[in-house]
Amino acid sequence: MNSDSRSSKAKRTVQISISRHTLMWLLITNVAILSPLYQQVTVWSLAICTICIIWRVGIYLGKVARPPRWLVTALAFFSAMTLAMVANKIGVLTALINLLILGYALKYIEMRSRRDVQVVVLAGYFLIALTFLQQQSVWSSLHLLLVTLINTCVLISLYHDENNFKYAATLGTKILLQSVPLAIILFIVLPRLPPLWMVPPQGTAKTGLSNTVSFSNITELTRSSELAFRATFVGGYQPINANLYWRALVMEDYDGKQWQQNVSITAAENAFVDKTSPKEPTRALSMSSVSMGDLDSDTALSYSVIAEPSGQHWLFGLDRATSQDKGVKMLADFRLYATTPIEQQKLYNVTSFTNANLQVELPLAQQQLNLRLPEGQNPRTRALAQQFAKHYPNAEDRLTAMMRYFTEQPYFYTLRPPPVGKQQIDDFLLNNKAGFCVHYASAFAFMARATGMPARLVSGYQGGEYNQAAGYFSIYQYMAHAWVEVWLADRGWVRFDPTAMIAPERIEQGFDAFFDPQQSYLADSPFGYLGLQSSEFIKQLRMQFASIDYFWSVWVLGFNTNKQQRVLEEVLGEVTRTKLAILLIVSLGIVGLSIAYSAGLIQFHRSNDKHLNAYYAVCKLLKKSNLAREYNEGPQAYNQRVGLALPALAADFNKFTDYYIAIQYQVLNKKAQKRLSRLLIKQSRRLKFIIIKQKLALNKTNT
Predict the structure, then answer these.
(1) 297: Cβ–Cβ under 8 A, 6 or more apart, which residues?
(2) Domain ranges in the chain?
């Protein structure tokens, strides 16, 4: 009984034994896996993870004991309950990510056996995959690839006794590199299937424009250097900066403080998202209900857009934008709209008809909507507008005069305008005379409405940074802009941008031509303090990195069914199921043979290892004597079998085996390595001579 108890205890001791080499790799991989998830981790989740890491370091150093299971279980229970209570506030997806992170951290400190290590490593792979769903840029992917390598090294150290970090890292790199060709083949050949499930939305917008516009919110975007989207024109066409007005939102309701979308448009948007009949009265649900007869194909601009994740539905295009892509709708206010929130990079194709009229016929209800002004607001601006109406009865002459007014008065374009009171436009237009694009656009739209001309505000982006090497435009958040559309009979909605009168350099040459980046989007960046933005080397380096990320977005993240078909046609000509099957089988066969060869399972030529060749030469001779070495038979087991079958050879073969094992599996200095190598070769020759001699003697006896 005591013997069984000791045996059981010994087994448990073996079971919980984890080498310090593996524990060190676990410390590294724990930090590495959590590092890309810093944006999703809540403060208290981060605190628990930090405590777990410190506790595990203490265990590694032998300063503290493992926590009892009841404590880990209690922490897991209360963490899950807390996450459930705040899930609505932080979003379901963020709550689930935090739950998995906490489970990973708590399992990490209570590990007792190899099985526990395996669970931690598998959870690590799952967290890496989850991170990739949200962070898919080329740099994030390289980061995650490095994290995957570190996580793989944990498994390698678990099954290899070598206390050598270089060995684990080398083998892990080799394994990952072997998987790359297989991943590429499957990526190209496998069909693009629709997702079986959807990632739940985060619950809040990430960054970018808002569906309301006031004197402050677009100004805040000028402090952000985040990428909004990229655009590539067909045929390498490069429009001038002044023509790049990227339409995103149209604001028709004005309450004296802010502009916002009309309920008829938001109801139409909700109908597209919910795929139900709208409860509110809507305008035409799409541009299909608006006359398309005035679209001239000769003036069409074709281009593709890669929108960055924003958590919103609105897309970007030049007037008048159309798209036939699935999941992209064209609204009655000439905007593009995604039926699902943009949680990942979205590639879509656009054709814009730059000379097309926008809604030549305007219904009476829409005219009244775009003439509406809040009562009692901005009386001085109303009086100024009436003077324009009196002196310029013609609508187009009046608009020209109002635009010219901004150049005749001492107006200034600034990112830091002075504050305004309740009569916002009066204060700006007639007192402060300093503002940003929203100030000038709001004042112009107000005066147009006050003189009886339907007007509305449009927000989006203006301009773009052209990458000459890759041939695309990058549009950043600090390029956010607002302008005005006024409806004119026989012409429809016509764009007017007062900013072009105050700061023409901003429109014609771009944001950086007018504003100092250190005072805007580089204000909170170390590049701004160091003055590196003006460095030509830094600029070229940034453009090169941006080009790499762009091609990754186009050919990896944007590798849709159409691109897959083009690539397969280049390789196979006419694409058939038979050709695809042959391509897949041949490719997988080549990859499999390569992996088998690198693992030593097959050999196509004689090894360069003279010790291995000497050992195999003796084994080959013994095979002819019906003593073939089995594939899963180690040198010691084979030595014992040869000794029993051929006693006369036992002593010499035992020496030979000892020399071989010492050279192949022991750490030797150069002197010992050289001595044993000489003895192994000498013993190999002796054994071959003895085996051949015995075989000849046996043949002579038989004859």
Answers:
(1) 353
(2) 20-158, 212-273+296-535, 610-701
Can you give the three-state secondary structure of 443-507, one letter per residue? HHHHHHHHCCCCEEEEEEEECCEEECCCCEEEEEHHHEEEEEEEEECCCEEEEECCHHHHCHHHH
Asked if residues 560 and 347 have their Cβ atoms less than 8 Å apart, the reply is yes
User: Between the CA of residue 658 and those of 415, 629, 652, 687, 688, what are the distances in Å?
Assistant: 81, 17, 10, 14, 17
The rounded distance, in Å, linking the Cα atoms of 445 and 497 is 10
**689, pLDDT greater than 60:** yes
**What's the gap between Cα 351 and its chain centre?**
27
Burial of 65 (0-12, 13-18, 19+ CB in 10 A): exposed
Alpha-carbon span 433 to 435, nearest angstrom = 7
Q: How confident is the model at residue 559, as a pLDDT?
A: 81
Classify 212-273+296-535 by CATH class.
alpha beta
The answer to whether 352 and 321 are in contact (CB under 8 A) is: yes
Task: Count other C-beta atoms under 10 Å from residue 207's C-beta.
Answer: 15
CB atoms within 10 A of CB 441: 29
Query: Rounded to two decimals, what is the model's pTM?
Result: 0.69
Q: How far is the C-alpha of 351 from the C-alpha of 345, rounded, in Å?
A: 20
Class of residue 331 by CB neighbours under 10 A (exposed 0-12, middle 13-18, buried 19+) = buried
Give residue 589's pLDDT. 87
Matching residue, tokens 């080329």: 138
Cis peptide before 320 (omega within 30 of 0): yes
pLDDT at residue 530, rounded to an integer:
45
